[in-house]
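PT: before anyone asks, these are the final sequences, not the draft ones from last week. 928 residues across everything. Please model them as a single complex and drop the result in this thread when it's through.
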Amino acid sequence: MIALGRMVSGLALWAAAFVVLYSLHGLGCALGWAQVEMFGITRAKAILLGSWIVLIAAQLVLLVWLLRRRETQLDRIGIAIGWIGLAATIVTGVPILAISSCV
Amino acid sequence: MKALRLHRDLTRIWESEPGWRGVFSSVSHTDLGKRFIVAAAVFFGIGGVLAMLIRAQLATPGSAFAGPEVYGQIFTMHGSIMMFLFAIPMLEGLAIYLLPKILGSRDLAYPRLTALGWWCYLFGGTIMILALLGGVAPDAGWFLYPPLSGKEYTPGVNSDVWLLGITFVEISAMCAAIEIVVTILKFRAANMSLTKMPIMAWYLLATAGMMVFGFPPLILGSILLEVERAFGWPFFQPELGGSPLLWQHLFWLFGHPEVYIIFLPAAGALSTIIPVMSRTPLIGYGAIVTAVMALAFLSFGLWVHHMFTTGIPHLALGFFSAASVLVAIPTAVQIFAWIGTIWAGRPKFTLPMYYIVGFFVVFVLGGLTGVMLAIVPFDQQAHDTAFVTAHLHYVLVGGFVFPMLAAAYYWMPHATGRTRVMRLGIAAFWLIFIGFNLTFLHMHLTGLLGMPRRVYTYPVEAGWTWLNLISSVGSFLQAFGFGLFAIDIALQRRIGNRSERDPWEAETLEWAMPIPPPQYNFASLPTIDSREPLTRDRALGADLAGGRGLLGRAVGNRRETLAVDMVTGTPEHVAILPGPSLVPLVTAMVIGGFFLSMLLSLYWLAPVFIVGTAIMVWRWAATTGTIRDPGPIEAGEGLVLPTSFAVGGSTAYWGSVLAAAANGTLFASLIFGYLFLRVVAPNWPPPGEYGLYLLEPGLITIGAILALVFARFGRHNFVRAKVGAVATALCLALSAAVLLVSGLRHLPGPTEHAFAAVSWMLTGYAIFSAMVGALIQLFASRRVASGHASAERPHGLRIAAVWSDYGAVVAIVVVWLLALSSAAL
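LR: through. Structure below.
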């Protein structure tokens, strides 16, 4: 079971990242973060950007950990899934850069 | 001679009971799998007739064929039947029939659960069809959006039929999901590591995993909407702090993964059939497994693309739009792997290949329009038009029906032991293929010209007349095609010639058994050293039939199969499976009693059936296990293995873990619902005075922690096990009582505001979970007393701990969530 969990960990972390970003977005809009400025942008955007960067960093750390073991095909599939998790975390967060947070 | 004797002995052990009793008590995965498939096909026929009625109505403008009320029932039932009574049960049936055979096992992990799932499906589906015949079928669309489906706009039982009937059927889906996961992970051939599994098993593992986490949100949504309709708890009423959007979230949290739940098993069939028909190994096994896992996860991040026009902020739409586009990539990886396999091989253009080519054309078109709809501005133009109707049919018919038709022809010789008799299948294919495209290709244009979905008529001036007429003609062509297909299959079943054992020269284990398959599948179980065992050893089937594998003997009436390590496939223990039983049927009838009493508004009667269900489950569990330690078993080839009674990581334990995970998803969805309403819904905060309270949370926390501790009492010293189980049950029961008192003291009536409604729902769920944990711990204490649980056979206590731990954790989370959120109001 641990080996299976390791194999899908990249996508599991993407799922967690997705939930975090979507939840923070909903919460931020409800709490009025889009009306407060922070570092020259809205607080909502700043928090979402910061969270996105942390989540990408977490995916990178996970990927490095996965890359340390590549003995079996299951390990190699896990590494591929780690790359997918990283790419998916980057792509699904890109709208933060371009779209207003709470409109 | 040995082979014949072994066959007779194993048939005696594994066959269903004779006569009518056998019909009701069978737990054979082969029988039940076939029943699922046949019933799903019958429901497909009913859904197809409804589709013909839709097309008859829309063939001309201003048609007097059906009025809006009847038409509402027709299109709602068409969608509901196709999704819930055809597609999901068909994939379940395929998995139930096929899994043990491709994995080299004799049965599924929980034979009686398979039977329970079958009866729940049959009864739930029957309720739906009877409602249709009675003119009270659901009529608010297959996704039953409130407020249209609420009491105000649908005062009759129509919506209740959907909510209760579909939930009843979903019990079957949850049973199948847990069963499939555990079977794939534990019931494989010796040495069949995960990466030596047939590719179909990976697809089914991903599908079943998705079902475990995908179905609970819809089950929760159905419970909430039914409670709103029955008792007036305003979850979806904005004027009282609810929101109809909550239903949409819960529905599509299930609904979008559902598309992939339907597609993946069909894709598994394609990945199995294409290499066989191309006479070459599948290209990119590892890449396909990766793609399947990617689909399984990514598909949970798309649900809001069904809600692009609901006014959700643009950034949130951006998240879901990006994920919706991403999901096309793993799908494309599979498409290219299949094309590459055909390219690299020497394809035989047999009948399954016709349908596979049909799949490529239809599904790729559906996928491309899916990418179009994933783009927010386009979706906002095409939303709720016939364009979406065309898209979803290209995806679902292309991605499920065409592959299933290929699968039907591919595995029919296996199920019947017979070959096809005529060339009707080719004619059926062309009628279906041409008819389908004639119906739906230009329906994209109909949609882009502005025709909305679900309208019962349209004016001549709209300019959609000829487009609709062509669609209707095409749909009837399709119907003739499906009719011919049904005749072809029936003829093969009745008068086809005997087929040889492996007519396609396939390489997976299901072809290493006599066809049609005996109830025990394999007279002895294989040991695997490659992904294509029959390529390495064409005589494998004969060897296994001769008993030259593992467990190649019959012992008393014991139904034995092999359980292995989840990852490596190393033999771990011998699972002893239960035989025929009426308990699943009676349990399903009692559960059905609950649903019927709710449907008929006999609410006072419903608790009787809940108690009845608990009694049946208790009785069910009481018939398992043993009071003797059977000791290790000689399994053959020098292997000596313990039985399932003696090992902690038994299949029952893993089934409980998965059931708890599904339960946890439902709980998480409920918390999501609470937070969603609190953040998004209008008319918050609720009227009244609220504040922090600590007494009850403190008491419940102490009680729940004690339950967690007592549940571990017998772990190191079995003498204390019984005391620990009773004490755990007591702590949980007291926690449940305090939860009730806390609700009565601090919460307003559940009909006053959505806050109260959700809070009461959370409280009720926590009480229910704690009581389930308490009951199971009481059961465990009885098992210790009766000798069924012992220091050598402790897994019953481990299973009980899963449920009591769950109840304890839920109680703590709920009471603190409510206390703290009450303070923040």
